[in-house]
Specification:
heterotrimer; A alpha+beta; B alpha+beta; C alpha+beta; A: alpha+beta; Ubiquitin-like (UB roll); 2 domains; 5 helices; B: alpha+beta; Aldehyde Oxidoreductase, domain 4; 18 helices; globular
């Protein structure tokens, strides 16, 4: 009888358009897999109990707390992290640019989670009011900014009018299976 | 000035926005091990026995470290700063035979990964003998330290004039009892360290999510018996500090100790539950204040006595209560003052400064007093404040109370408090707002306006250093002893250096928080980094600019007066084709001969030692509404008037004010650390310790005034904590206004739902029906 | 914080799931959205030996209309309740309450069934299901049975679900008649927090404006959502404001209110009455306008 959790699982996850593989123990969090297996340290762990939102990534397009999902559950899924927002030439995503212009970040620790939440939200709600943006952000804690500049940056982008999509996956790199 | 004053976009943003920040948790070294800490589950206990055998045997475990393994490091950390009245104690890197608060570290498990370390932690067998613990501020509680049976860490009285005599003759006298609860800084990134002992070099490198890398180096050197040149401490990208990363903690010494013991890199990342337990907290005080005043609302005499909860240890001595006591007169002229406190030990996490550092309590006290005076004299609250404020013509104003460092009095150096307050009032359209709120109340809504003013202590010494250097490749680097946790120093210090050097901020690389950059440093807290660190950068950059001009004159064979600078190059104005770059000059300086007449290197290291503290001012106006059923508070409007001297970067300053206001709102309405009677933390997760979210925050309007400080070369004052200071006071003022004269008085913070409900006015009795019903009016 | 070790299995069918549960009993825990379970696992408060991931069981994610009502698979994500037009038509109370459940991220992954089985006393969904007179379909390897929502919630975080059972489907009857209205009101300390106290109500009126069905549920005040007995008193009466206020007060009075870090029992009792009156008032207004 093996000890619980000793059996590892092979997973294949499409991360920012690139298929990534790993062999993970069941209890490895998706956040840890992104950070430690695949070196994508932009996704941060602020609380490890699903309250602060710093670990928010997109899983099959939906904003997801990566501390509340096990890596093994992401097998076959499409995951998007902050590292995938800027395009291949390093041009910032409109939200990133708006955050810079509006000083919507200070220490930067909560920022990736907020960016990913807003990317998903603005895709579904391209023209929100200030109150709606604040509600959309209610699951992301920031201790530095007081949120005002973040809300302003989101409204700047919403006013830009073009529907927001993430940059398309890099050509030529294997695109794994989708959910 | 070209760049100082500019809303310059931040240089650190591109990497932070793209997920390429480098926080302690992102640092991976080959062969790195992971530490998990076992913490005391008891508020007070004898630690009888720690049995590590089963834990050591667990797969993946490399070592288990207890007090018995510390050797000569088994000593208390130093206390900074000392004080004559302090009966201080500080923690050790691991608890020895006694644990004094829930969360005190008892043992360290070192393993191949964090998962295994946490599994092995469950196999540690610790025998505790739980003891009664001190959980209140009443006298007679169980002694936290055997040599201090009365649990008194210090008792201080500060005075100006004869307050008893003044109260006796004051036309009116009133008293208040005020209570403020505990809270914590709660940065989004918890604490953490990576430590690496290089056996060949006999050098320790420590990356610490800390506000004080130089102090960590000092304490590590003392406890591990290493010379300063053997230790390098680096604060990489730090995800917020707010005071939670201000002191040198046991872990800051323990983790380097383990790295050296094992000669392998080790990393410890605090998790949020640990942070809730073991990161220091602040604010808890109980005040009894008496005010003497006249019918015109002028303050004549103030007596405040408070009891301060200092927790189980005093890493920062008496700093917090000294700040509360010395700043209690705020920006007001009060002829007779007595401000005194007792700082008491409890079996709880130690109390050290968090954003505001004792000043929010002082502001709460004096602002509640002013509202009381306004009410008693039937005057408008803003008018009463304006009548008592220190005026521009009074500056420098000696409040008569010693400052918290004991280096002199609290002397308000410069500023125009009435103008700052008026700015906030005008911004809020205060008179119209008061009328609108009254009209809303007449229609049955619980709407109120609050006002509060404050003075903030900033730019404290003893010093800060900067080394500005042009290397032979022409790169300009400014090393600073301050560290950054989000306040944008990588950009603001570059703005300062760029102006002095005649280049752009993009040309200057700022390196903060690295002990290898500047030999002596203090750190980032007390709203000092830009003031003291920025001044040091200015001085060093000025030196470099002067040396560059001198060398350029020599190199071009012309007088300095004939030099024309264009960016990082000088030309002879009479023969402009003759040009020399910073790189050329650095190379020239690198081979300096006696004949050249200067010392080698195009660089300078300068320290700025402020002669005194410099004070910022501000005022806030808040519009609130309470729900008549649930008493929940909505903040409908928030206006800030602010003067922190010259602003290096107004965009950064606005961010600091907004963030500090958010933290203030948290401490007023949402955040409270509570313990049960045995010292167990009740608010142990983010389900219970509630931080403000975007829906809790109003949009804030900020109006700046800039009166330059005379105390540093740039005329700047600090602002990092300003926004937090008056928030509980301004919300108390607004909530009292909203509930009206039949409602309750706000005498405590924070205000949760049940306390707010108690403030609501009792329902009006139903109208008594007329005895003789009127006949209907004629059609 | 990292969870204690566990084995992981991801069945594809309900039958497979039930067989695993039968085999492992108490040692197995079902994983739906994970928004309540995984924090507890990270804090090591819950330590299953076997984690059974329901997210690949397609049959649990179905969502269909049925005779004017809805049949939701337990794994339907919470955000479907606010996005899907069928919910707005057939169970508007759910559509109104859904945006108050946690946050965007919670609702993207959290499931209807997961919230019901977790049975937090301050959660919105259990209360709404009782107000809507939902029926839960429970399955095990041994048996398949139903349980009405108001019988399902037994106490603090405790339901009628047996250790080897899965909540498979939630059956929502359609509105009781053409003149049906709902109301919902809650008080929370911050947007998205669990309610300090809340109320949901559904009223159905006959052609003459007299109540022929009334359900008032108060949640967050006690250890589980409470179907107010006082609600039944409205049947046969007109929903006049004074009467609704009386019923609300009586309903709140039936609850053994609890103290916690965020609010006292007295606070909850006081606010419950007011919120119940608001919810009833909204329901009456909507029913009259229908």
């Amino acid at each position: 009888m093996t000890t619980p959790g000793a059996i590892a699982h092979d997973i294949a996850v499409t991360v920012n358009g690139t298929e990534r593989r790993a062999r993970v123990i069941p209890r490895m969090l998706l956040a840890d897999a992104l950070r430690d297996e695949w070196g994508l340290t932009g996704t941060h762990l602020g609380c490890e109990h699903g309250a602060c939102g710093a670990c928010t990534v997109l899983v099959d397009g939906e904003p997801t707390r990566a501390c509340l999902m096990f890596a093994v559950q992401a097998d076959g899924c499409r995951v998007e992290t902050v590292e995938g927002l800027a395009d291949g030439d390093g041009r910032l995503h409109p939200l990133q640019e708006a955050f810079r212009t509006r000083h919507a970040l200070q220490c930067g620790f909560c920022t990736p989670g907020i960016l990913m939440t807003l990317v998903a939200y603005l895709k579904l709600h391209p023209a929100p009011s200030e109150a709606e943006v604040r509600e959309a952000l209610s699951g992301n804690l920031c201790r530095c900014t007081g949120y005002q500049h973040i809300v302003q940056a989101a409204l700047d982008v919403a006013a830009g009018g073009r529907p927001l999509t993430l940059p398309s996956p890099q050509r030529g790199e294997g695109i794994g299976g989708s959910a | 000035m070209k760049f100082v004053g500019d809303r310059h976009l931040r240089k650190e943003d591109p990497r932070l926005l793209t997920g390429r920040g480098r926080y302690v948790g992102d640092i991976v070294l080959p062969g790195m091990l992971h530490v998990a800490l076992l913490r005391s589950p008891h508020a007070h206990a004898h630690i009888v026995r720690v049995d590590t055998a089963r834990a050591r045997a667990h797969p993946g475990v490399v070592d288990v470290v207890t007090f018995a393994d510390l050797g000569s490091a088994a000593r208390a950390l130093p206390i900074v700063p000392p004080h004559a009245e302090l009966r201080g104690h500080n923690f050790l890197p691991l608890a020895g035979d006694r644990a004094r608060f829930v969360g005190e570290p008892v043992a360290a498990i070192v393993a191949e990964n964090r998962y295994a370390a946490e599994d092995a932690r469950e196999l540690l067998e610790v025998e505790y003998e739980p003891l009664p613990s001190a959980q209140t501020l009443e006298p007679g509680t169980p002694a936290v330290h055997a040599d201090i049976p009365d649990n008194l860490a210090g008792r201080v009285t500060l005075a100006r004039g004869d307050v008893e005599a003044a109260l006796r003759v004051a036309p009116r006298v009133a008293s208040l009892e005020l209570r403020i609860g505990r809270g914590g800084g709660q940065p989004m990134e918890t604490r953490g360290l990576v430590a690496d002992w290089n056996t060949a070099l006999e050098q320790l490198t420590v990356w610490a999510s800390s506000q004080v890398p130089h102090q960590i180096r000092q304490f590590v050197g003392e406890l591990l018996d290493l010379a300063p040149h053997q230790i390098r401490v680096i604060a990489p990208d730090v995800g917020g500090g707010f005071g939670a990363k201000l002191i040198v903690y046991p872990e800051d010494v323990l983790i380097p100790f383990i790295a050296r013991r094992l000669a392998r890199p080790v990393r410890w990342l605090e998790d949020r539950l640990e942070h809730m337990l073991a990161a220091t907290q602040e604010r808890e005080q109980r005040h009894e204040v008496t005010i003497g005043f006249d019918d015109a609302g002028r303050l004549l005499a103030l007596r405040d006595h408070f009891v301060h909860d200092t927790g189980a240890y005093t890493p920062r001595g008496l700093v917090v209560p000294l700040l509360s006591a010395s700043m209690v007169t705020g920006p007001y002229r009060i002829p007779a003052v007595e401000s005194s406190f007792e700082s008491r030990y409890t079996h709880r996490v130690p109390v050290t400064p968090y954003r505001g550092a004792g000043q929010p309590q002082a502001v709460f006290v004096i602002e509640r007093v002013l509202d009381l005076v306004a009410r008693e004299t039937g005057r408008d609250r803003a008018e009463v404040r304006l009548a008592n404020l220190v005026r521009a013509e009074d500056m420098p104003w000696d409040t008569g109370l010693p400052n918290y460092r004991g280096s002199g009095h609290v002397i308000l150096d410069s500023g125009d408090p009435p103008s700052v307050v008026r700015r906030a009032l005008e911004s809020a359209r205060y008179d119209a707002l008061i009328a609108e709120a009254a009209a809303a109340r007449a229609r049955g809504r619980l709407v109120g306006v609050g006002v509060a003013a404050y003075v903030e202590l900033t730019g404290v010494g003893p010093f800060e250093g900067a080394r500005v250097r042009v290397d032979p490749a022409g790169r300009i680097t400014a090393f600073s002893g301050v560290s950054t946790q989000g306040q944008g120093l990588e950009t603001t210090l570059a703005q300062v250096a760029a102006d002095e050097l005649g280049v752009t901020p993009a040309d200057v690389t700022v390196v903060t928080g690295d002990t290898a950059g500047v030999e002596h440093g203090i750190g980032s807290f007390a709203s000092r980094a830009a003031v003291v660190g920025g001044s040091a950068v200015a001085l060093a950059a000025r030196d470099v600019s002067a040396k560059a001009r001198l060398l350029a004159g020599r190199a071009l064979g012309c007088a300095e007066a004939d030099l024309e600078q264009a960016g990082a190059a000088f030309a002879d104005r009479r023969r402009p084709e003759r040009r020399v770059t910073f790189a050329d000059l650095a190379r020239l300086a690198g081979a300096a001969t006696a004949a050249l007449g200067v010392e080698p290197g195009l660089e300078s290291t300068r320290f700025f030692q402020p002669t005194d503290i410099t004070y910022s001012f501000g005022a806030q106006v808040a519009l609130v509404e309470l729900d008549p059923l649930s008493a929940c508070v909505r903040i409908l409007g928030f206006w800030i008037g602010h003067d922190s001297g010259r602003l290096i970067n107004p965009l950064v300053v606005e961010g600091q004010l907004q963030g500090a206001v958010a933290l203030g709102i948290g401490s007023a309405l949402l955040e409270e650390i509570r313990y049960d009677e045995t010292g167990q933390l009740l608010a142990g997760t983010y389900m219970d310790y509630l931080l403000p979210t975007a829906t809790d925050m109003p949009s804030m309007v900020i109006d700046h005034l800039e009166t330059l400080s005379p105390l540093n070369p740039l005329g700047i004052k600090g602002v990092g904590e300003s926004g937090a200071l008056p928030v509980p006071a301004v919300l108390a003022s607004a909530i009292e206004d909203a509930v009206g004269p039949r409602g309750g008085r706000v005498t405590r913070m924070p205000l949760g739902p049940a306390r707010l409900l108690d403030l609501l006015p009792p329902p009006l009795p139903p109208p008594v029906p007329p005895l003789f019903p009127r006949s209907p009016a004629p059609a | 914080m990292r969870p204690a070790p566990f084995d992981y299995v991801a069945p594809r069918t309900v039958e497979e799931t039930l067989e695993i549960l039968a085999r492992h009993g108490d040692e197995a825990k079902l994983l739906a959205g994970g928004q309540s379970l995984v924090p507890m696992m990270n804090m090591r408060l819950v330590r299953p030996a076997v984690l059974v991931d329901l997210n690949r069981v397609a049959a649990l994610g179905t969502f269909r209309e049925d005779a004017g009502g809805l049949r939701l698979g337990a794994l339907v994500r919470q955000h479907a309740l606010e996005r899907d037009g069928r919910v707005a038509r057939a169970a508007p109370l759910l559509a109104e309450a859904a945006p108050l459940i946690g946050h965007l991220q919670t609702r993207a992954r959290g499931t209807v069934g997961g919230s019901l089985v977790h049975a937090d006393p301050a959660a919105e969904l259990p209360a709404c299901m009782i107000a809507l007179d939902a029926v839960f379909h429970l399955r095990s390897a041994r048996t398949a049975r139903t349980c009405r929502a108001h019988d399902f919630f037994r106490g603090l975080l405790t339901t009628a679900l047996e250790p080897d059972e899965v909540l498979a489907e939630i059956e929502l009857p359609g509105p009781a008649g053409p003149r049906t209205g709902h109301g919902f009101a809650e008080v929370a300390r911050r947007h998205g927090d669990f309610a300090l106290v809340g109320a949901g109500a559904v009223l159905a009126l006959d052609a003459g404006g007299v109540c022929r069905a009334a359900r008032l549920v108060i949640f967050g005040a006690g250890d589980r959502p409470h179907l107010a007995r006082a609600g039944a008193a409205l049947i046969g009466e007109r929903p006049l404001p004074a009467r609704l206020a009386e019923v609300a007060r009586a309903g709140a009075g039936e609850i053994d209110a609890r103290d916690d870090l965020h609010a006292t029992a007295a606070y909850r009792r006081h606010v419950a009455a007011g919120l119940a009156a608001r919810a009833l008032g909204q329901a009456a207004a909507r029913a009259e306008a229908a």
